[in-house]
Design a protein that fits this description.
One of its GO terms (molecular function) is 2',3'-cyclic-nucleotide 3'-phosphodiesterase activity. The chain has 193 residues and is of the alpha+beta class. The chain has five helices and eight strands. It has a single domain, classed as Cyclic phosphodiesterase (Cyclic Phosphodiesterase, Chain: A), CATH 3.90.1140.10.
Length: 193
């Protein structure tokens, strides 16, 4: 993935951190994928490292991010695409707060520095999701998705409904250089919102 990415994570104390980490481990093992990663919703990618290179934390802290109470992540359903980083994922609702945060983050990408361009990108192209599997395998069919959904629901994760494990409010934004191999994807800045 070119450049760096901004990811949204649940608040540190939220039980989904541990549950989703375990589910990603189990899903990767089930599909024989070597890739393990931090559970996250990508807000944007393609951020040039020169944008923040002097001080990544200072740069992240300078972004005008929304109030945590206006930011809600809601899980909808499992899905699979023929895209390496979306081989298996939980589709998330395009809530107003999430779209606003994604547009704010997209302003940091070359060519999207105008609010109208970033907002159009968020509204028309942004596909909020929480990846469960990175893999170079065929798309997972309906039967496979049903089996994985059982795995996801077993620890209490809720899809398409409401409840504590159906998503989260607020969270943390991290900056990750995603132009490296996946096993080197590690945050260089972290901000609670």
């Amino acid at each position: 993935m070119p450049g760096s990415s901004l990811w949204l994570l649940p608040p540190k104390s939220h039980p989904l951190n541990k549950i989703l980490t375990s589910l990603i481990d189990r899903t990767s093992s089930r599909f024989s994928s070597p890739h393990i990663f931090i559970p996250h919703v990508t807000l944007t990618s393609e951020i040039s490292p020169s944008t923040y290179s002097a001080d990544p934390q200072k740069w992240l802290d300078s972004l005008q991010l929304p109030q945590p109470s206006s930011l809600q992540v809601r899980f909808e359903k499992l899905a699979s695409e023929d895209v390496f980083v979306r081989k298996l994922y939980i589709k998330c609702s395009k809530t107003d707060g999430l779209l606003s945060l994604a547009a704010t983050c997209r302003l940091q990408v070359d060519g999207f520095g105008e609010e109208e361009k970033a907002t159009n990108w968020a509204t028309e192209k942004y596909n909020p999701h929480l990846s469960m599997l990175y893999h170079d395998c065929p798309v997972i069919d309906a039967e496979g998705l049903d089996r994985v959904e059982e795995l996801v629901r077993k620890p209490g994760v809720i899809l398409g409904e409401s409840g504590e494990l159906a998503g989260w409010i607020g969270g943390r934004v991290i900056l990750v250089p995603t132009d490296k191999p996946i096993d080197q994807w590690s945050p260089v800045a972290d901000r609670e919102i």
